[in-house]
Amino acid sequence: MAKALLAVTVTIVVAVAATLAQETYKATWDDIDLDKVLANDRLLKAYVDCLLDRGACPPEGAALKRILPEALKTDCAKCTLKQLQGAIKVVKFMVEKKPDLWGEILSKYDPDGILSKKFQQ
Hints:
Elements: H1 2-20, H2 34-39, H3 41-51, H4 59-73, H5 81-97, H6 99-109, H7 114-120
Helix pairs in contact: 5-6
Signal peptide: 1-21
Keywords: Signal
C-alpha cells in the first residue's frame, strides 16, 4: 500500500513538474502598457506597420512578429496567462475599434479565414 501511494505521488509530482516546465513565450512584451498603445493611434500604427512589413519594428514588435504565426496556429498554447489576456484585449479592441486594420492583419496572418471562424464562436 505504501509503495502504491509513493508511486502515485511521484507520478503526480512528475506530471505537475512537466506542466510547469512547459515552454512559454518570453516575457519580452509582457510589460507593454496595452491601454497606452491602443489609445495612441501613432503607437498602434507603428505596431501594425511592423506586423504587416510596412515599417520598422520596435524590439517588442519584432518579437511578436516572430511568434505570431505559431501562436495563432496553436491557439496561443505557449502563451502565459498574461500574454493570453493581452491578446484577447487587443483582438477585441481591433475588431470593435479598428476593423480596417484588423482586416489587414487577418489578410496576412489568416488568409484562409480559419482564425476568423474561431473568433466568431
